[in-house]
Design brief:
mainly alpha, Tetracycline Repressor, domain 2, DNA-binding
DNA sequence: ACCTGAACACCGTTCAAGT
DNA sequence: ACCTGAACACCGTTCAAGT
C-alpha cells in the first residue's frame, strides 16, 4: 500500500522525538518506514521540505497537547505569556527546533505550516482582546515572536550542559557584572528565567500601551 | 613557511564575506590557502571550531569598523540601541551569521570568542552607566541579547527575497490582522523595523525602571 | 611540527529500472 | 504512481606517510 505525505511526516516526528533532528536523515527515515531512502523524493522533492513539515508537526502536537490549558486562561495578557512559555518548553525539549523554526520563517510559501500559523493566530486573537489596535497587532506580534524565539534559541543552545557551558563562557569573558552574579549553573538558570520574565513583561506592557493609545 | 591559526581564520573570513557560510568548507578553505584540505585539522581539531572562530572574527571586524561611532554616543541608552542596530546590520549582510552566533552561545569554553565578549562588555558598561544595579545587569543584558538575536535571525531568515517570502507566508496564514496591514514587501520591512523599535524601547524602558528602583 | 594524499563513513540527490 | 538500487558529488574526519 502506498504511503502518504502524512506517513512520512509522522515517521519523521518519531525519529526527532526519540533521537533528535541530527538523526533525521533520508536513510534513517527510509529504514524506519521499511522502504528505500530515496522513496521520500516522490513525496517531498527536496529533503528540507520534509524537515520543515516535521518541524511544523512537532509544533502542532505541542499545541494540541496544551490547547485546553491555553484556552482556560481568561486574561488575554496571561494567555500570551502562557503561549510564550509553551514555545520555550518545546525548544527546551528539542533545542534544534529553534534553528528549524527560524528557517521555517524564511521558507517559501510552498512549505505549509498550518500548526505554527494556528499558534500565531492564538497570539493575535489575544492581542486584539487586549485592545491592541488592529493596525498595530502585526508589529506587536513580531516583537513578541522575536523575543520568544531568540530567548529560547539562546537559552537552550548547547543542551545538555548548556547551563555550565554558559557559566564557563561568562567566566571567560571576564565581565565583573557577570562573574559576580553567575557562580553556578543554577545561577545561570535563574538569570535566564528572570531575563525571560523581565523581557516578556516589558513587551506586554508596551502592547498595553498600544491598547491605551488614542 | 607554516601557517598560524589566525591565517586559517582570515582565509575563512574572506570566503564567508565573498561567498557565504555555506561555501566555507574544508576543501574550499584549503584551495583558498593553496594547501591540502586536511591541513586545517592540525590547527583546529574539529571543523566547527574554525567556523565559530570565523564567526567571532566577523563580529570583531564589525566592532572595529563601528567602534568610533559607538563610543561617540554619549547617552548610554542610545549607545545600547546603536550596538543592537550594528548586530542587526551585520546579520542583514550575513543571515547565516545568526545561526552561528546561537551555536557560539552554546559552545564550550574551548571556543574563544574575544570579539563577541568585547561587544557584550560595551553593552554591560552602558547598562551600568544607565544606573542598572550591578546584580541586575546580567538579567537585563540577557533580555536585550535574546530580543536582538531573535529579531535579526527571524527578520533576515530566507534572504534574499526574505520580505516577499514573509509576505507570502502571512497571506497563507490567513490572519486578517496580518493581511490587512501587510500588502507588499515594503510593508513587511516597515513592520520589522517598527517591531524592532517597539521592542528595543520597551526593553530599555524596563532597564531604566531597574535603575530607578531602590 | 606541519602538510599530503588516500581512504572512510556519511549526506542529499538523480535517474533508469522495476511493479 | 510509487518504490528500488546503483551511482554521483559532496561533507567532515582519520591516519600513515612524507618533509
Amino acid at each position: 500500500m502506498s504511503r502518504t505525505d502524512a506517513d512520512f511526516i509522522a515517521a519523521g516526528v518519531t525519529i526527532v522525538k526519540e533521537r533528535g533532528f541530527a538523526q533525521l536523515t533520508s536513510r534513517s527515515l527510509g529504514d524506519a518506514m521499511g522502504i528505500h531512502s530515496t522513496a521520500v523524493y516522490r513525496h517531498f522533492p527536496q529533503w528540507d521540505l520534509l524537515v520543515l513539515a516535521v518541524t511544523d508537526a512537532i509544533f502542532g502536537e505541542s499545541a494540541a497537547r496544551h490547547l485546553p490549558e491555553i484556552l482556560a486562561v481568561a486574561d488575554p495578557r496571561a494567555r500570551v505569556l502562557t503561549l510564550m512559555r509553551i514555545v520555550r518548553a518545546e525548544i527546551d525539549l528539542n533545542p534544534e527546533l529553534a534553528a528549524n523554526l527560524v528557517r521555517m520563517a524564511g521558507s517559501p510559501v510552498s512549505v505549509a505550516t498550518p500548526h505554527a500559523d494556528a499558534m500565531a493566530g492564538l497570539v493575535v486573537d489575544a492581542l486584539l482582546e487586549m485592545g491592541v489596535p488592529s493596525d498595530s497587532v502585526a508589529i506587536a506580534y513580531q516583537a513578541l515572536e522575536n523575543f520568544t524565539m531568540g530567548g529560547a534559541a539562546l537559552d537552550y543552545a548547547g543542551l545538555p550542559d548548556h547551563l555550565s557551558k554558559r557559566l564557563g563562557r561568562r567566566r571567560m569573558a571576564g565581565i565583573p557584572a557577570f562573574t559576580q552574579v553567575a557562580k553556578s549553573p543554577d545561577d545561570i538558570e535563574r538569570i535566564n528565567a528572570q531575563a525571560f520574565t523581565l523581557g516578556a513583561d516589558a513587551l506586554l506592557d508596551a502592547c498595553e500601551k498600544l491598547a491605551a493609545a488614542p
